[in-house]
Amino acid sequence: MENNFYRAVGGEQVFDRLTQYFYEGVANDPLLKPMYPEEDLGPAQRRLKLFLEQYWGGPDTYQQERGHPRLRMRHYEFKINPAARDAWLAHMRAALDRLELPALFEAELWDYLQRAAAAMLNTFDD
């Protein structure tokens, strides 16, 4: 894990804040909140944080606890259309902006988040 993105941006603290800010937005979103079966978004925040940390070179806790990410399979039961993708990205954009990362890191993370959100689309129906 030496000299990787995870460490360069600030490690666990940064990913914890990113997911905290993201779920603050989701908590009041009429489109996204119903996709979370748990009233408490804390477990979802933790799962996303662990996934992002592992993806960016941090600890492999996500893999140890949940196995392979299989993101599309894990989200297939939810209707992820362009409106849901855009809402997810809007909350993630707001969360990322609050971090005030250096521009290069912000751009790299944002590029990934946009690609990941697009990959999760599973319908174009409203």
Q: Name the helix and strand elements from N-terminus to C-terminus, one letter apiece.
A: HHHHHHH
CATH evolutionary superfamily: Globins
The CATH topology corresponds to Globin-like
Shape: globular
**Mean residue pLDDT:** 89
* Highest-level CATH class: Mainly Alpha
Distance between termini? 42 Å
Number of strands: 0
Low-confidence stretches: none
Describe the structure.
The structure is a single chain. The chain has 7 helices and no strands. The termini are far apart. It has helices spanning 5-9, 12-26, 42-55, 61-66, 71-75, 82-99, 103-119. The chain has one domain (5-119): Globins (Globin-like), CATH 1.10.490. The model has no long low-confidence stretch (mean pLDDT 89). 21% of the residues are buried. By secondary structure, it is mostly helical. The longest helix has 18 residues, at 82-99.
Write the layout of secondary structure elements.
Elements: H1 5-9, H2 12-26, H3 42-55, H4 61-66, H5 71-75, H6 82-99, H7 103-119
Helix pairs in contact: 2-3, 2-6, 6-7
In short:
This protein is an all-alpha fold and about 130 residues long. It has helices spanning about 5-10, 10-25, 40-55, 60-65, 70-75, 80-100, 105-120. The protein has one domain (about 5-120): Globin-like.
Tags for this entry?
Hemoglobin_trunc; 7 helices; oxygen binding; mainly alpha; globular; Globin; Globin-like; metal ion binding; 126 residues
